[in-house]
Protein: Glycolipid-binding domain-containing protein
Organism: Streptomyces aurantiacus JA 4570
Amino acid sequence: MPRGRYSLHDPHDHTPLGEEHFQCAPGPSGWRYVAQRTTPSGDHSGSVDLTLDELGRPLRLELHASGWQVRAAALDGVTWVRSDPSGAHATENNAPAHAFTGTSPAFLIATARLLRLAPASPATSVRLVAFTDPVLAPRTLDQSWALLKREAHATDNGPLTVDEYQVTALDTGEQHAVHITGDVVLAAPGIELENLESPPSAFGPGD
């Protein structure tokens, strides 16, 4: 069960945004990721709880940030309920999208699991609902993912397979690289892996 810490920063001006303390593991339903988020000063700022099924679809998502809460799942596309800090108002919405995304590294793992790309295969488009900080405001976006290469790197615990993805925002054409090994993000815009207490989980053949 990988357990560790990511540092988060603004991908454009590198302003520190805080840290995400996480643990994740494959399970009976597919894969689960849970994390607590802190501000740069160390105060609690939110949480992430994401469960995927065997095909990488979001079975359950719960986000907390700035008093706001989102509960979501893949249902008739994707469906979510967003509640305000007072708890007095909850709004349900639905979109014809494949999955969710946001600032948590969990969403990069989830999208990679959903697409299951092969090295050098054609880029694949995916529609996602993003929950944007600081109030988890939803917006729909389209991305293109391509798996550029898959390389094995020698480590003290044996070879580590690293996948390098190229992700393109289809509305702006902006491209960036995402490096993933197993169920851990090594590096991505705004994300750095600062500490990992145990090796990444290896998904089964064909996963």
Q: What stands out?
A: The longest strand covers residues 137-153. Residues 3-198 form one domain. The radius of gyration is 16 Å. The first helix runs from residue 106 to 115.
